[in-house]
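Q: My labmate handed me this sequence with no annotations at all. I'd like to see what the chain might look like in three dimensions before we decide whether it's worth expressing. Could you predict it?
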Amino acid sequence: MTVFDGTVSVSRVFDIKVINVNDAPTIWGKPSKNSIPATIDFKFTPNADDEDTNTTLSFSIANNPAWMRINSTTGVVSGYPEALDADEYTGIVVSVSDGITSANLEEFNITVTPITKPLKTGQELSYVTYDDGYYDKGEVRSFTRADDIVTSTSMGLMWQDNADVIVVKKPWLTELNYQAYRHEDTSGDTAATYCTQLRLGGYSNWRVPSVEELMGISDKSKVNNGVDKLENSIDAQFFYTNGDIYWSSTSLKSESSKAWTVKFDYGSNRWNNKSDAYFVRCVRNKE
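A: Here is what I predict for the chain of 287 residues:
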């Protein structure tokens, strides 16, 4: 810098150092699934960035279960939950730091579901090599009954079993929605609405069972060789039974206007038009 009075000038030299203001790193993303079965690998890689150049980022994790870990360099979150790790884990937080400031990913939850063993069908005789009677494997079905509700301890489900089960018939969807090709719209006077409005045993959170759940209460020991019908193919704890068709909540993948049903004379599954009216046996998860 120089100063001049018109006759003489004086100069001085000085230095200026420009210091970069650190920008905090950013992090985003979420796991593709919030529920995984036990004994299945879990892996999630969040996205992270920093506007500052020549910055090394490091990652950490908090509130994570013991089976879950993070790579502090890459940010990869991974783990292998064992069967005993089946539980719900909440408030997991992944953080990224540039050594000066840090940022947190929005917390996420992960549920590890228990291993579900296949259930025995009830068939004890083998008629064809490698049929269910040939293998005779799986967990024995177990049911208890109280207050018009049958509880499946092996499936963790509670089933409606009052007089309505053999009286009430509902369509999967209304004729209006069927004709309008709204094949997943279960509003109106439908099986789904009936179950939603059901109040039984002090519970209100009833629903239409999936086809797998509905097949789970079918008892093949009641049918001889799939031909000679002995009695309705359902456990004896179910007092209200008939051999007719019952709705499931499972749509036919190849044709959305149809859904899977189970006919309890022989315990066979099939598909039917969603506008048809059939019996309903509601279910709820055991708490």
